[in-house]
Structure formats: C-alpha cells, structure tokens
Write a structure and sequence with these properties.
Layout (H helix, E strand, L loop, with lengths): L1 H5 L5 E4 L8 H10 L2 E4 L9 H21 L6 H12 L12 H6 L14 E5 L12 E8 L7 E5 L5 E4 L2 E4 L39 H4 L8 H7 L61 H12 L6 H4 L3 H16 L3 E4 L7 E2 L1 E9 L5 E10 L20 H14 L2 E7 L7 E8 L13 E6 L7 H15 L3 E2 L6 E6 L2 E8 L2 E6 L2 H15 L1 E6 L2 E2 L2 E6 L2 E5 L1 H11 L29 H17 L7 H8 L7 H16 L3 E6 L6 E7 L11 E8 L2 E9 L7 H25 L8 E5 L2 H8 L11 H12 L3 E5 L16 H8 L4 E3 L9
Parallel strand pairs: 1-2, 9-13, 24-27, 27-28
Antiparallel strand pairs: 3-4, 3-7, 4-5, 5-6, 8-14, 10-11, 12-18, 12-19, 13-14, 15-16, 16-17, 17-18, 20-21, 21-22, 22-23, 23-29, 24-25, 25-26
Helix pairs in contact: 3-4, 14-17, 15-16, 18-19, 18-20
C-alpha cells in the first residue's frame, strides 16, 4: 500500500512478539522486499510505544462510540473501524494541528458526509419485485463508512444483515439500541398476593431485613495480614493489589432532587427518549411470586460476576475471596513451590468467579475458584483415566417430579473446594496463580492434590465422595451413577451429585440432617437450604408442584445477542423452513460470524433443558454449525425472537399426579433436504410431568415411513427402559407396562408381530429389540391419531393453532407471564 499508493518504500517493521507477524509466508515476504522485522523484548511494550498508545487511543474512541449508541458487543469491529476513520480526519497536536488525512494526501478532508454513529437510518431497498405500496426504506442502524465503496455501512434491523447504501435517510436523534428507562418501580418489587411460596419453610419465618442491609463485605486485609495467613510454601507470593472499589448492591434511592454539576455544562449528555416498542417488562412479570421469592430473583438478576482476573481485582470483595481460596489451597497442602524439572510441562491456571446466594436472595459469599487449564495436559504423562459421572438432567427432572408428588423436602448442598479432597497420583506442575507470583519468581506449583480443571480431578473427587455416601448406607443407582439412594423402614433419602453441587431429597428429616452433619465434618459442605437455583435452573415450589425455568439465562442470552428490544416472534421456526446444507449458491458468513453462530447454538442447546418447545428448532440449527450461512443465522435469530415472547417459560412438575409413565414417539420421512434422512422425536411424561424429550436426525436413510417410525420407536423404547430403571431406584413401582403411543399403523404391526419380509429385514436388530420389551410387558405400543400425537412437535416445524395446541399439552408453564399483555 505505502509503496504503490504513495511511493514510499517500507524499510523496517516494528512489532511485538506476536506470532501473526512472524509466519513463514510473512518472513518470505520480508526477505523478498528487503524489509527488516524488529520485535520488542518480551513484556516490554514501551519499546513499541507509538503503536501501544495508538491502540489505547483507538479502543477509547471505539468504546465511547459503542456506549453512546448502546450497541451490543458484537459490533465492536464496526466501532473500531469507525474510530479509525474519524481519528484520521481529526486534527492532532503531533502534526501541528493538522489531520493525518491532510498530511498524507495534501488536502483537507471533507466533513459534510459524517453522520452520528449508531443512529437510526433508512437505506434504500433495491430488491426487485416490491409492490407499489411497499416500503422503500430498510430500517437500519448506521455502523460506519466502507473502505472501498462510496456510501454508508448499515445493519438491517429486520434481516439482521450488513449492507452498503448510498441513498440513506438518517434520524440522528434516534438510537434503536437504546434501552427504555422508567421512573416507575420495578415490577419485581411490587406487592401482590403471593402465588409461589416455599412449603418447606415455616409460615412464621422471619424474612430478614432488606437486601442492602444484609450484604456484608469482607473486611479489607492489608498485604501484611495476607502474607501472615499464608503458609511458608506460598508466603513469597504477593497478594493482589488494586484500588479499593466495592461492588454496589444499593436498592434504596434518595428522594432529593439532583442537579447536574456545572462542570458538565459543556458536554452533550442528552439521551433521546426511549423508542423501544417492545420493552422486556412487557414479557416478564414477577407479581405472582411471594415477597421472599421475588427478593431471591432480584438478587440473582441484578448481580454480575467478573469474567477475568483484571476485572475482579478492582473489587476488594473479590480480592479477599481470592486470598481465601489461596489460604484454603495452601492450608490443605495442595502444592509446594519448586523449580520446574527439565523435560516437564507446566499447566497454566486461571480464576473463575461465582456469587453464592442464600434461599432469601441475600449474598452468602463471593467465591473465587482457582482452575487449572487442563486442556494443556498430555495423556499418559499428566493423567490416565478421567471419566467421572455427573447427574443427567433427565434424572434431575425425574427426582423433582417424584419429590413434588410425595412431598419430599428438597435441599441443596455445596462442597467448598471439593476437588481438594481427591488425592493426585500423577506428577503435575502448575503455574503460580495469576496475581500471586512475585516479580522474577520462576518457580511453579508441584501439585499434591487434585484441583479444578485437571482432567483427572473429577474422577478423584467422585471416588472420595461416593466412599463417604456408601459408608452412610447409600446405594448407587445402576441407572445413573450420580444417583444414590438409601431405603430404611419405608423411608427414602436420595442424593444426586453434579460435581460439587448436591441435591438431597427424601422423607426422613432426621437422617437428612445426619447426612448434612457428616458431610460438613468431612468435606466442609455448605447447606444452601431449599433448592432454588441449580445449574442455572430456577426452581419455584408451591402447592401446585415444582416449576423449573431458565429466566435469567434467557434474559442474559437476549441481552448479549442484542435482542432485548426486538419484536418477538410467535414461532421458533417456520412451518415449511428451507434450512439446508450450504452450497455454491448460499451466502456464507464470515469466520467471526460463524464462531458467534456456534456459540449461540451452544447456548440455545442448554436452554432446551426446560424449553421442549425449541428442541426441534435448535436441533435443525445445530446441523449446520460447521458452515453456517446467512439463512442459518437468521434462523437462530428467529429462535431468540421467539424466546423474547416468554423468557420465563418453563415446565411444571405437578404435585397431584398418579406417577403414570407414558411415552410418545414420532418421525417424519426424509425431512432433511440435504441427505433425505428422517428425524426422530419422542416425549416422555411422568404423571403429566415432562421428564424426557429429544429430537435427532436418523443415522441412515429410511426406505419407507414405516421404517422411519420404527427406528423412532426403537430409540424411544431405549429411553423408556432406562427411565423405568431410574424410577425404580427412586421408589416408584411401575406395575403395568409403559404405554408407547405411535401414529403409524405399520410400525405398530411390526412391533406386535414376529414377521420379517423384504421391507423390514434390514431393521432386524431394532425389531428384535422392541419386540423383546413388548413381550416382557415393559412396553405396550398403542395407536394414536396424528392430531393427538404430542411428539409431532419434535419432528417438524409447526405454526398456528397446531403449535399452541401441542404446547398446552406438554406441561409448559410461565410463572412470569406479564399482566401487560405482551405484543
């Protein structure tokens, strides 16, 4: 560029030690053109100060642009490019109050084309086939200036795509991504007759003071005190030091009128009025909950957790939490500081932060956890066996469904520093934790105990914890190795383990307390009270049953994706969608957008834990994560718009149930347009409570609809047999066969009659599998009309009354349904 456009030969390039500047192809380019590459010393940015300062300048400007327009983080690239464009056209003292544009080109830059970044803009719609009275403008956001075209770069708010247009109408006082503000009190804190109340808490329980009065900050510790608390093995590691800044948890607001300081008079701080037509408050309501549960939801929703050490070290509470974690690790003899032996590899480490809550919604503690980056370990050297079971989410739903019917108390326990209790057999070396390494100290931590993140840590902890449970009289379930059951004189106590989170349920309160005391003595386990929040799932219990939802997870997903103010969609996927594998005619997305698509689909996958209504749509989207197109991205965004309609929607496990076990199976035929493979779907209920569901593309092409349906039946039978075994361990006696509803008569005949012919012999194994369980009276296939088939929702896209009809029969509930009416 410099040589071609301006006649200036590049002699030297100065950079840091980034490998992107030292690739083989780049070095060949340098040699061919006689360019010398100069790199700065390691951790010495001052040797490349001009570039480092300009990076800082660019990021400051880009942040200001993004914050002013309130754009989602996904627009950071447009913010940086626009910041570069503007800086090159602004005078600077370094160039004697001239602009870089003027110095380079010898003329003043034009300014008449500049517009307010992030404002509302309407680009000309150039698509053919528009009706005479159709809209001619595309509602968009202005996001910059293209480098190779004379126009404006815009982001279409409807199609969610970028495009460039010359003919644009700007509304510079309006910003589409500004969130609504209101002076009215939050609906979460408004008074109303409670609908959800905890049946396991005494009616006369004192709910305690307000949130802000109960948040206790750990006392600030001086560096000297922190060093005293550490053992000699880590005594030389300095404590993290940063300006003291407490996390803010204020709820009360002063009624005194406030004036803007005069020193800010010269700044334009006026924000446009909110023009978001679909605010989130129209779709999430909290008035149906008891004051205590509203307090819990308010605390969970309002707090944010740092994502990096640099962010956490600014707050004293997190610094104290990190020091507490170091003290616990050193006190348990987790490591000793040694020099790294020759030929040994070192494992890096990082901090992970979590806020723990009490059942009342108050902050119980700030938890900082040191985690090893186990992905750098080498099999056979740093670890051997790694498998450790964790609770299946189907097991969680089954346990809670049984607990709701039988009135079991359900408690939640948390093991503090669980993995430290597992013994480490291998020789593993880890870097000194971030923020605790003394300057110039090159030693590493020789680990003696397991630590979070190591590949073998979960297995070591599981072995230790299960030994203790079996010593208390628990027996491990053969259906789910994370489930432990104790039966004694007609009473049941169940423990379900998910790493260091434990659900303890049963009808023997004396023994449950004995288990808590034993685990506390041996592992320092913490009693979190009745189950409220487990693995991102919010649990609300009332006389009607137990409701599960992922409200906060959904709201965070919508906020991070920039869809909090968007108009919601009625259905998660079109009825006759055309999502297929990309080909030559498909519009591929950039590598950055493809990575964002994969992250989004992964987050949607976890949301299906309590949202069976999006399972089919997410399954379709997950088939194309390797090479997504614009159509696939639009499909994922449609799911987000559907979630916006009811963020608090979940499932209800009713307390009035006979625990009758029923299953539904269905399949389309050759529904995948790319491979012509069929899609199986099943839905399993326990007394009307949804406990298991799935959508899966079949691994082979079915030659007939009967074959497709029979393969779906075989996968459903496999799930039913497993759940029956699980329910047996939970004390549910299933004396009659499980009714399996199928709407294909041919598949039912194959299951009931031992007949093979040319059209079924290639599915012989599935035939024998299903017939064996039918003959043993575990399964009873029955015909059901296609109109009553609940599994229909898991095999195809539905719309209209059919979609809502099936949704009403799946056990879906929405405790957060807004009284505002939504759209």
């Amino acid at each position: 560029m410099a040589a071609t456009q301006f006649g200036q030969q590049v002699a030297r390039i100065r950079a840091d030690n980034g490998m992107e500047f030292q690739t083989t192809s780049l070095r060949s380019f340098y040699d061919d053109h006689g360019i010398i590459l100069q790199t700065s010393c390691t951790d010495t940015p001052q040797q490349n100060g001009v570039v480092e300062r300009k990076h800082h300048h660019l990021l400051e400007t880009a942040r200001a642009l993004r914050f002013r327009a309130n754009l989602p983080l996904q627009f950071w690239g447009e913010c940086v490019l626009t910041a570069t464009y503007l800086i090159n056209r602004l005078p600077t003292k370094v160039l004697q109050n001239r602009t870089p544009y003027e110095v380079l080109l010898g003329r003043q830059p034009p300014y008449d084309h500049l517009r307010v970044f992030g404002c509302l803009a309407y680009g000309k719609d150039t698509h053919k086939g528009l009706s005479k009275f159709g809209e001619r403008g595309r509602r968009s956001v202005f996001v910059g200036y293209p480098a190779s075209q004379k126009g404006y770069r815009l982001f279409d708010l409807v199609t969610r795509t970028f495009y460039t247009s010359r003919d644009v109408h700007f509304v510079e006082g309006s910003f589409p991504y500004h969130t609504p503000t209101s002076s009215s009190p939050s609906p979460m804190l408004s008074a109303s007759a409670p609908v959800v109340d905890d049946e396991l808490v005494a009616n006369n329980e004192d709910h305690g003071p307000s949130i802000e009065a109960t948040v206790q900050q750990p006392p600030a510790a001086s560096p000297a005190d922190l060093n005293k608390s550490a053992s000699p093995s880590l005594g030389e590691c300095p404590s993290p030091v940063a300006p003291v800044e407490q996390p803010v948890h204020e709820v009360r607001r002063s009624l005194r009128s406030r004036q803007v300081p005069r020193r800010l008079d010269s700044y334009d701080v006026e924000l446009p009025p909110s023009n978001v037509p679909y605010p989130m408050s129209n779709f999430v309501c909290y008035t149906g909950f008891s004051p205590r549960h509203r307090s819990f939801l308010a605390a969970v929703s309002s707090q944010s957790e740092p994502s990096s050490y640099r962010e956490a070290v600014r707050y004293e509470a997190w610094r104290v939490a990190m020091q507490r974690e170091i003290d616990a690790l050193v006190g348990n003899g987790t490591w000793t500081l040694v020099s790294l032996p020759p030929g040994k590899r070192v494992v890096a480490s990082k901090w992970v932060y979590k806020i723990k809550y009490t059942p009342d919604g108050n902050i119980e503690r700030y938890k900082a956890r040191l985690v090893a980056k186990g992905f750098t370990q080498t099999e056979g050297i740093d670890y051997e066996d790694t498998f450790a079971p964790v609770a299946k989410l189907v097991s969680v739903r089954c346990l809670l469904a049984v607990a709701a019917v039988r009135g079991w108390a359900v408690h939640q326990l948390d093991v503090d520093n669980a993995f430290l209790h597992g013994d480490l057999q291998e020789e593993v070396y880890m870097q000194i934790p971030p923020g605790f390494a003394a300057p110039g100290d090159t030693r590493v931590c020789r680990l003696h105990k397991s630590i979070y993140g190591l590949k073998q840590a979960s297995r070591n902890w599981y072995a230790k914890f299960t030994t203790t449970l079996t010593g208390l009289g628990f027996q491990r379930s053969n259906a789910d190795y994370s489930l432990f059951v104790r039966r004694s004189h007609g009473t049941y106590v169940v423990a379900l383990i998910y790493v260091d989170d434990v659900i303890l349920a049963g009808d023997d309160s004396v023994f449950i307390q004995q288990v808590k005391d034993t685990l506390h003595r041996q592992f320092g386990i913490k009693n979190l009270g009745p189950l409220k929040y487990f693995l991102g799932i919010e649990v609300a219990r009332s006389r009607a049953g137990i409701a599960l939802s992922q409200r906060k997870y959904t709201l965070d997903l919508l906020r991070d994706s920039g869809f909090s103010g968007s108009r919601p969609s009625v259905f998660p996927i079109e009825k006759h969608h055309s999502l297929t594998r990309s080909d030559e005619s498909s519009v591929r997305v950039s590598a950055e957008e493809a990575a964002a698509y994969r992250r989004l689909v992964g987050r949607l996958q976890y949301l299906t834990v309590t949202r069976p209504d999006i399972v089919y749509a997410v399954n379709i989207l997950s088939r194309y994560v390797h090479a997504p197109t614009v159509a696939h991205v639009a499909g994922a965004e449609r799911v987000l718009l559907y979630l916006k309609r009811a963020p608090g929607q979940g499932i209800l496990l009713p307390s009035s149930s006979s625990l009758q076990f029923t299953a539904y199976c269905d399949a389309d035929w050759g529904g995948c347009q790319s491979t012509r493979r069929s899609t199986s779907g099943y839905f399993v209920t326990l007394g009307g409570a949804p406990v298991s569901w799935r959508t899966k593309k079949q691994s082979v092409v079915a030659r007939s609809s009967a074959e497709a349906e029979y393969r779906a039946m075989a996968s459903t039978v496999s799930e039913v047999i497993w759940v029956r075994a699980l329910l047996g361990d939970l004390g549910v006696r299933l004396t009659s066969p499980t009714v399996l509803y199928c709407d294909n008569q041919a598949a039912l005949h194959i299951a009931a009659n031992p007949v093979f012919h040319e059209r079924t012999k290639h599915v012989e194994m599935d035939c024998y599998f299903v017939r064996d369980h039918v003959a043993s009276h575990e399964i009873m296939p029955r015909k059901i009309s296609s109109q009553a088939q609940l599994a229909d929702l898991f095999t195809k896209g539905l719309a209209g009354d059919r979609f809502h009809e099936l949704l009403s029969k799946l056990g879906i509930c929405n405790l957060h349904a807004s009284v505002c009416g939504g759209v």
